[in-house]
Design brief:
There is one protein chain. The chain is an alpha+beta fold. It has one domain. The chain is built from 1 helix and 9 strands.
């Protein structure tokens, strides 16, 4: 009789082990599914933040490029713009306002660029707002900043400050850049 009860105890332990194993596997599977879902959510969030950082760094690159180049510009020879209304290039003057311009080009000489004869090199900074492809270009390095959504160029009358309002594709923020051309040689006449 003793051997029979031991045999029954062994069977019941085996059944308990099987149920315990099934429950453990179900719990582990549930935990793995939840962990996988959270991992996917975290990876999507990380990717969105990474792309947003690219857009913000693009906005910062525009600001840094223009302010650095304008800092090195020693003499503005002429500034031209194209307005939506006129459709042709016009020179920027101190008295005239600019509204709705889709193109701005600042031409001048840069302190840090000299040719073989030790003369200052003339260069330009351009802002273009073509449909679907707005961009900034610097003539000496042909640097084109991507991800521009739109550029709006404006200037009030009797002012040497040109305001460039731009948006970066993927961001709702609007960025402003003010360029003071009076200290760079813009003529008051």
């Amino acid at each position: 009789m003793v051997s029979r009860s031991k045999h029954k105890a062994k069977l019941s332990n085996k059944g308990f082990m099987l149920i315990e194993c099934i429950i453990s596997c179900a719990i582990i599977s549930t935990v793995m599914l939840i962990a996988t879902r959270h991992l996917i959510i975290m990876l999507k969030y990380y990717e969105e933040k990474r792309i947003e950082d690219i857009y913000y760094s693009t906005a910062e690159n525009v600001y840094n490029l223009v302010t650095e180049r304008m800092g090195y510009m020693r003499e503005v020879t002429n500034v031209q713009y194209v307005s939506v209304m006129f459709g042709q290039r016009k020179d920027v003057t101190y008295q005239d306002p600019i509204e709705g311009a889709v193109f701005l080009q600042i031409n001048g000489y840069f302190n840090d660029l000299k040719d073989y004869n030790d003369k200052y090199v003339k260069g330009s900074i351009s802002f273009h707002n073509n449909p679907g492809s707005a961009y900034l270009r610097y003539s000496q390095s042909t640097a084109i900043v991507e991800y521009f959504d739109e550029i709006e160029i404006s200037k009030t009358a009797n002012s040497g400050i040109i305001t460039i309002k731009y948006k970066i594709r993927g961001l709702d923020e609007v960025f402003y850049l003010n360029i003071d051309l009076l200290d760079k040689g813009l003529k008051l006449i």
